[in-house]
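Practice problem: predict the structure.
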Amino acid sequence: MHLYSIILTAVIPIFLVMGTGFVMHRAGWMENDIEAGVMRLVLNLLVPCLIIDVVIGNPALKQVSIAVWGIGMGFMIIVMGYPIAYAIGSLFGLKRGGGRRTFSIVAAIQNYGYLPLPIIATLFPDEPGPIALVFIFGLGVEIALWTVGLLILSRHPGAPWKKLLNGPFIAVVISLTLNYSHGYVLIPDVVRTAMHMLGSTAIPMSIFMIGATIGRLYDRSIWSEAGRTAGASMLTRLIILPVMILLVVKFLSVPEDLVKVLIVQAGMPAAIFPIVVARLYDGHVPTAIKVVLITSFASILTAPAVIAYGMRLMELAP
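Answer:
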C-alpha cells in the first residue's frame, strides 16, 4: 500500500493539471481554435525540442540495439493488442459497423507519450534512459497505428505513410541520427540551451492540453447506452492488456530502462489521438470517445495499482 500511495501521489498532480485543462475548456475560456493552435505548437515545436534534448548524447542510448528494442516493443505490443481488443469487443456485443473495429484500435493503444512522461520523470528522476525511451517506444506505436491499425479500421489496401511524418516522428529520427553519428557535438551550446528551455515546457503543456481536449469531447449524451462499451473498455485497456504487457516484461530479456517504460505504459488509459484517426477514416467516433473518457477517468485509481504491481514484479521496489 505504501508504494501505491507513492505512485498515487505522483499521478494525482498530473490528473489535476489535466482537470484544469478540462475545466478551462468546459468553462469556455479556451475556444476550439485556440486549442488547435496550442496543440500544433506542442506537437511541432515543444515536444520535438524535448525529444532532441533528452535523446542526443544520452548515455542510455549508446547502443543501437536499445533503440531497436524500443521501436520493436512499441510496434509489437500494439499489434498484439489489436486482436485481443477485437475479440473482447465481440464478446461484449459490439457489432461490425457499430464500433467493433474502432474499439479494437482505440482500446489497444494506450496513452504512450504525454501522460507517461511526467510519471516516469517522477518515479525515475535521476535516470535519463527511461524518458528518452518513451519517445523511441512511441515511434513503434506510431508505425503500428498507421500501418496495421489503419488497415483494420478502414480496410484500405495500403497505409498513408506520410501521416507518420509529424513533428515527434521527425524529431526521433533526427535525434537518433545525431546521437549515433555524434553529430550533436556540432550543435552550439546556446542552441541546446534554447531547446532545453522550450522542451521543459512540453510536458505540462501536453498534460494540460489532454485535459482541454477531453473537455471538448465530453458530452453527457455519450453516456447513454455506454454500459457495454464501458465494460469492454475497462476489461481490455485496464486489465487484460496491462497483464499482457507485464508478462512480456517478465519473460523477455527487455533492457532495464525499457522495462521501466513498459511498466508505466501498462497502467495508461487509451490514447486520445486515435479519435482523430477514427474521424478521418470513417470509424465509429462515439465509441472512440467513450473508450478514451471511460479509461481516462478510471485510470486515476487503476494506474497507480498497475504500476506498483509491475515495479514489485520486476523487483524495482520492495
